[in-house]
Design goal:
The structure holds three protein chains of three kinds. Chain B is an alpha+beta fold. Chain B has helices at residues 20-24, 49-58; strands at 6-10, 29-31, 37-39, 64-68. In chain B, the strands form two sheets. A two-stranded antiparallel ribbon of chain B has the order 1-4. Chain C has two domains: 7-219, NADH-ubiquinone oxidoreductase 51kDa subunit (Rossmann fold); 311-409, de novo design (two linked rop proteins), CATH 1.20.1440. Classes of the chains: A mainly alpha, B alpha+beta, C alpha/beta. Chains in contact: A-B, A-C, B-C.
Chain lengths: 205, 69, 425
């Protein structure tokens, strides 16, 4: 039994944890945007968790890549973590992993520099999350036999279901959102009805 | 005498009323009945300076700023 | 820094009217009356005279003109000057009249401002856009080689906020006429990032005269703290509207009637304040005096509300318009103004519910100072003055009575409210 097997197990395990973390990060990101709350936790917890878990994910992915590289059973260059299709082994599926990771790095770096950059550009890059996650998911299913059956498959599918549901929720809100030019009219309309019922609502900017 | 002349200011166009700032800095920020922050315009007292910077960093919309008067 | 003073014409021009000729003048008559273009030959030279003259902006904010000129003049790189004739205050007619009767004074001022600040780009932003008359004036000036900088005429969208500095710059840059958060001010970073001087067309007309006749001539009218003359749009109780040029500091009762046919005065337009009669009858048209009553001259809109109208009804109508004209960008304004408008509508009707007045006052306190522009602040000032001046009427309404006999609207409001993004382009 060589160290290579331990590395291989570590890579698979950290990969799975990374997928779970990324699922949580995406859902939390949607929750921040929708001003949702986690039961029992203060508002800043949602945004804090989103940011901290995204950094934790990067750490897990770094270990995931390094352990795969260090494992001598297959030959994967260390550059394969960020350069797509640089690996001879499972070129395509590992390439997807690199693409996904590159997108994540872009999202995180721009978020760290958020105060100094154009707001519209920051948002456009951050929306790449909706591309990064499915690509990471495809990478997970495609490169690991583990996830293709048994409870790990169910776990992966569950993550996908959660992401699809959260994204659908987000899209539904975007569809419902009142355009800026119609917001005042919406407050007028809403206030005339709820002043009768003295219910407090507010129009979101 | 405050060490810094910085005071808090909200960009009301960027602000969408997340309310994170008021949670982190209730001494200087409270929320109106619509969930938008009302900010104490006076210079931030030095003992709250760190909390103020934390609140500025935490705003999901980057709408809270610490600015020279 | 010598001042060019054309003595015989100066004595003539010291008297009013200074800005409005008896009939619209073409370029030849304009130059015959006022003399040639008083270019100084170098950037910055005019600014000292403007400072000495004490000229304040005539667009409503009354900001010292020399300061804005100096900030833009000091800046490096490309600079822009804009003549603001958007006249987005619905009750104001002075800019429109000035542009029709004396466009060359405005255009002179625009060129002088460009020279003083070192600007290489000039714009004229007006309610009606490039009219044949304005285009003809520009063509005449071009033929005479009068203008140092080309002027582009742009039409402002018919929004209340279209004349706001940052909204104007936003629109000229190709976007909607929506205010932006300041800092940075447009004088630091304006049109396409360049420092931009925005001055009301009347202010530029005054600059054109000061450059010819000097600051001492300018100060011969008005008060020492607020020198010069200003254009006012005056509404008399019979509904007639006239644009009158007056000295600053003139008694308001020389412009507005204060007899029994008048219920109250409105000074400063829809972001101004109501003034009670007979208490305010002796007041003068200057910000120093008006400030003590919570009012300001603004862009010079003055109205005498007839005694057969209800002040609360007029106020409610106007605030409903002001709320609909909110940019809808800032939470407090977006949520507060429509609620205030609805509350005032109820107060203007019979037997308003008990808590409505308190609600309106609370909302007023919540929106003040919390927008990216001063729209909520001006609206709150107008609302608060109504609640004070028309307090006796409020009591009557609570009992289901009203002392007004005429339900017809008095003050002008445009038709239609903005409903889509296109209304702001």
């Amino acid at each position: 039994m060589s160290g290579s097997t331990a590395f291989w197990y570590a890579s698979r395990a950290t990969g799975i944890v990374a997928l779970l973390l990324l699922t949580a990060v995406l859902v939390l990101g949607i929750l921040v945007n929708r001003q949702g709350r986690l039961p029992g936790l203060p508002r800043f917890a949602v945004t804090s968790l989103h940011r901290n878990l995204s950094l934790l994910s990067v750490a897990f992915i770094a270990v995931h890549v390094l352990t795969a590289v260090l494992d001598t059973y297959v030959s994967i260059p260390v550059t394969a973590g960020v350069i797509p299709f640089a690996s001879g082994y499972e070129r395509f599926w590992l390439g997807l992993g690199a693409i996904s990771f590159d997108l994540m790095i872009a999202m995180i770096v721009t978020s760290l520099l958020r105060g100094r950059m154009n707001r519209v550009l920051w948002r456009a890059i951050h929306l790449l999350a909706y591309l990064s996650w499915p690509v990471a998911f495809a990478h997970s299913i495609g490169s690991s036999k583990d996830l293709q059956h048994g409870w790990l498959l169910y776990l992966a599918v569950a993550c996908a279901v959660v992401v699809v549901a959260a994204t659908a929720w987000r899209l539904a809100h975007a569809a419902r959102q009142v355009p800026r030019a119609a917001r005042v009219a919406a407050v007028f309309a809403q206030h005339t009805t709820d002043s009768r019922r003295s219910r407090r609502t507010r129009e979101t900017v | 005498m405050p060490e810094t002349l910085d005071s808090l200011k909200v960009n009301p166009i960027d602000c969408t009323g997340h309310g994170v700032c008021a949670e982190l800095l209730p001494e200087l920020i409270w929320l109106d009945e619509w969930g938008y922050p009302v900010v104490d315009p006076r210079p931030v007292p030095p003992q709250l300076d760190r909390e103020a910077r934390r609140a500025v960093a935490a705003c999901p919309a980057l709408a809270l700023k610490l600015m020279r008067r | 820094m010598t001042t060019t003073v054309n003595e015989p014409a100066a004595r003539q021009a010291a008297a009013l009217p200074r800005l409005l000729p008896a009939a619209p003048e073409d370029l030849r008559r304009h130059l015959a009356r006022y003399g040639p273009m008083p270019y100084r030959g170098q950037a910055g030279l005019l600014i000292g005279d403007i400072e000495t003259s004490g000229l304040a902006g005539r667009g409503g904010a009354a900001f010292p003109v020399y300061r804005k000129l100096a900030i833009v003049a000091r800046a490096r790189g490309r600079k822009v000057v804009v003549a603001n004739g958007a006249e987005s205050e619905p009750a104001s007619r002075k800019d429109e009249l000035l542009l029709r009767a004396a466009p060359n004074l405005v255009l002179d001022g625009l060129q002088l401002a460009a020279e003083a600040t070192g600007a290489t780009e000039a714009h004229l932003y007006t309610h009606y856009g490039p009219t044949p008359q304005l285009l003809r004036a520009l063509a005449e000036r071009a033929a005479a080689g009068l203008d140092m900088v080309d002027v582009t005429i742009t039409q402002a969208p018919p929004r209340f906020l279209a004349g706001q500095e940052s909204a104007l710059v936003n629109h000229l840059g190709g976007g909607p006429a929506l205010p932006t958060f300041q800092p940075p001010r447009v004088t630091e970073r304006g049109l396409r990032g360049a420092p931009t001087l925005v001055q009301n067309v009347e202010t530029l007309a005054h600059i054109a005269l000061i450059a010819r006749y000097g600051p001492r001539w300018f100060r011969a009218a008005g008060t020492s703290a607020e020198p010069g003359s200003m254009l006012t749009t005056v509404y008399s109780p019979d509904g007639k509207c006239r644009v009158i040029e007056t000295e600053i500091g003139a008694p308001l009762n020389t412009l507005l009637s204060s007899g029994p046919e008048t219920r109250a005065w409105l000074v400063g337009g829809y972001h101004g304040a109501w003034l009670p009669l007979p208490k305010a009858a002796a007041l003068t048209l200057d910000n120093g005096t008006l400030k003590k009553y919570g009012a300001a001259a603004g862009a010079g809109v003055l109205a005498a509300l007839p005694s057969d109208r209800c002040g609360l009804t007029e106020t409610a109508r106007i605030v409903s318009y002001l709320a609909a004209e909110s940019a809808g960008q800032c939470g407090p304004c977006l949520n507060g103004l429509p609620r205030i408008a609805a509350g005032l509508a109820e107060l203007a009707g019979p037997r308003p519910r008990r808590q409505v007045r308190a609600d309106v006052e609370r909302w007023a306190g919540l929106v003040e100072g919390r927008g990216a522009c001063h729209h909520p602040d001006g609206t709150v000032r107008f609302v608060r003055s109504a609640l004070t001046v028309f307090a006796p009427e409020l009591s009557r309404h609570e009992k289901g009575q009203c002392s007004a006999t005429n339900r017809r609207p008095f003050l002008p409001l445009p038709d239609g409210i903005p409903t889509s993004e296109d209304d702001w382009i």
